[in-house]
Amino acid sequence: MSQDSQDDLSPWRDQIDALDKQILALLNQRAEAAQQIGHIKQRLNMPVFRPERERQVIEKLHEHNAGPLRNAGVSAIWREVMSACRALEAPQRVAYLGPAGTFSEQAARRFFGASAQGFPCATIDDVFRSYLSGESEFAIVPVENSTEGAVARSMDLLLAHPVHLCGEVSLPVRHFLMRQMPDLQGIQTVAAHPQALAQCAGWLRAHLPNAEIRPVSSNAEGARLAAEDASIAGIAAEATAVLYGLHIAARAIQDEAQNTTRFVVLGAAQPEPTGSDRTSLILSVPNRAGAVYDLLKPLAAHGVSMTRFESRPARSGEWEYAFYIDVEGHQDEPRVATALRELQGVCAMYKCLGSYPIDKKPRDN
């Protein structure tokens, strides 16, 4: 770099260094305030994590953001600031489908920030066990994908166990084929989670028609196998290749360009209404003509919109199907509360999983 270039850059670098010191001092002031709030919460036995409060903080910052930082960048920065401050109040223990490098870990980091303490679990059943046993304070599990629909095991476990939802994460899913070599030559097996294999089925048929398709417990497990055997390729997030020292042999191989997986957060926190919330229900009706119609009438009568309606075998022997329904609004809002009270009267089984803020993409400023 020439001396002239150095002279041009120096004053700006000096300014950035000075600004960084100011930012650090302000961040530590914020952390001290968060610690004081933590002491008060502990004395009053209040929950440390309030997802709706953190949502409000970020939305206020968006309103005051004059740029050039984009709102998405502001969200990412402040999510980590709040995560670090929250860790000073109390560590957040979060169970997710592991090992490290899975999309579930990405979703957990996006919701809780990097300062939360993650507990990778081998299966979705183990994620629930970690949460229900108290080993983890929170858990995060995938529930649906825009390509493949519902994640069956998560849905069955939400029905089977006394859990409460306090948040959601909608994560864009980009799949990368990774192996020891940077090309497709010599691939005999593709190993990944069944959901990932299904989301990339068209690409695999077109580009690796003779390869064995091997379902494994997680995408990270497929990457681990690929790191041990040059004939195996894994499918996972791009960051997983770095973790396992693999080359990216093909990028963005998912069949749907806008492939998205929705995760829900299990936790005791009960978020208050924010004005943009979702309520999740599991219902069942008596086996009689018109029962499903009666199920929908209270929602329509009170102007409550459904964003999801899905049925699965109830596996209990008492009812034929359980209906998984998401509605717009918070269960404490008057019109939603009235509709839900009427809904309970026509259900053979009624389970409200909770109300929580909708995960919305930040609007550009």
From TrEMBL:
User: Where the protein is mainly located, per its record?
Assistant: cytoplasm
Reactions catalysed according to its record: chorismate = prephenate; prephenate + H(+) = 3-phenylpyruvate + CO2 + H2O
BP terms from Gene Ontology: chorismate metabolic process; L-phenylalanine biosynthetic process
Keywords per UniProt? Amino-acid biosynthesis, Aromatic amino acid biosynthesis, Cytoplasm, Isomerase, Lyase, Multifunctional enzyme, Phenylalanine biosynthesis
- Record domain Chorismate mutase: where: 3-93
All copies of domain ACT, residue ranges: 280-357
Segments forming domain Prephenate dehydratase: 93-268
Q: Name one GO molecular function term.
A: prephenate dehydratase activity
EC code: 4.2.1.51, 5.4.99.5
Question: Which superkingdom does the taxonomy of this entry point to?
Answer: Bacteria
Q: In which pathway does it act?
A: Metabolic intermediate biosynthesis; prephenate biosynthesis; prephenate from chorismate: step 1/1; Amino-acid biosynthesis; L-phenylalanine biosynthesis; phenylpyruvate from prephenate: step 1/1
Site (Essential for prephenate dehydratase activity): give the residues.
261
List the Pfam families hit by this protein, alphabetically: ACT, CM_2, PDT
Q: Where in the cell is it found?
A: Cytoplasm
Alphabetized PANTHER family for the sequence: PREPHENATE DEHYDRATASE P PROTEIN, PREPHENATE DEHYDRATASE-RELATED
Name of this chain's protein: Bifunctional chorismate mutase/prephenate dehydratase
Q: Which organism is it from?
A: Thiomonas arsenitoxydans (strain DSM 22701 / CIP 110005 / 3As)
Quote the gene name from the UniProt entry.
pheA
